Amino acid sequence: MLFSFITSPTGPARRPNVIRLTALAAGLLGLLPGCSKDDEPTTPTVPNPSRISVPQAAFHPEGIQYDEANKRFIVSSRTKGVVSTVRDDSTFAQLADDPRLISTIGVNLDAGRNRVLVAVSDNGANTTRTSATTLRKRAALAIFNNTSGALLNYVDLGGLRPALNHFANDIAVDAAGNAYVTDSNAPIIYKVDPQGVASVFLENAQFDAGTAFGLNGIVYHPDGYLIVAKANTGTLYKVPIANPASFTAVTNATGLTLTGADGLLLTDPQTLLLVSGSQSTVYRLSSTDAWANVRSTGTFATGAVSPTTITKRGSDAYVLYPYTATSPRFKIVKVSF
Questions:
Q1: pTM of the predicted model as reported, rounded to 2 decimal places
Q2: Radius of gyration over alpha carbons of the chain, in Å?
Q3: Domain-located, residue 187
Q4: Is the model's pLDDT at 36 over the cut of 90?
Q5: CA triple 267-271-276, angle to 5 deg
Q6: Does residue 293 form part of some domain?
Q7: From the DSSP assignment, how many helices (H) and strands (E) are in the chain?
Q8: Disulfide-capable partner of 335 in 41, 179, 188, 317 (CB 3.0 to 4.6 Å)?
Q9: What is the average pLDDT score of the chain?
């Protein structure tokens, strides 16, 4: 089509001009770099793309939420300690930061209150912000305005049990606006009320994992309880909000091994998606008896990409692939069963 517009003073372009232009085009194409595994196109060609590849080197995101109102994903970062956004065309922008954010881990978008809640920890991944006083001691909840990124509150959690090691990991928010935060290094679930007052919601030796990662993913069920995953054993717990001490272990009816359990997503009252990073798998779990028992109804293999957490977008679910702490990019991938 391009050549049809090329003319000479006496008529259509002569064949030698076409040959020269063809050779020039071939030469320019030869200068274009080939696509490699870590140099993938970032602009999607369809709505709700199957994957979004984000060229952010050594960002190592851990948590993810989809912000429907603003058509963007919200992600955390172990290595940078910031909160950022990603759009479908891979456009990347920083939403929030604070010097106390050493590593940002779990993220919860409380859309009705226009808040972004972020779990803050320090396991040494952010080499520019870690310190001897915060390493394995920092556990906090940072709360930001979702529109402006302004810090609304910063709540210390580790100080409630200063003698223990800490790693604030994931967050659930109930209908009243109370936040519940798991600690992977201490056998604790914290509660932070809407006014920012922190307390130990539940502490129990069953949650202790020694030097391994313990409590991890957490979700709020609309019937008034939490579902919590323990990573080192793959155990799921049902924790009633009104009486947390009466928590019970969910029986795995199919004998499925869920070790490495990380992010949880409740897609409806009977269906839970669970990301197992160590197994490179997203499990679809179902319960018909209010989460006394659970069975597997599907799996999605991610490959060796260190999947962490998962978020709902309309009727779809997207899982986060951080790869490693030094990777040149990360991905957000639609899950299919």
A1: 0.88
A2: 24
A3: yes
A4: no
A5: 90
A6: yes
A7: 1, 27
A8: 317
A9: 90
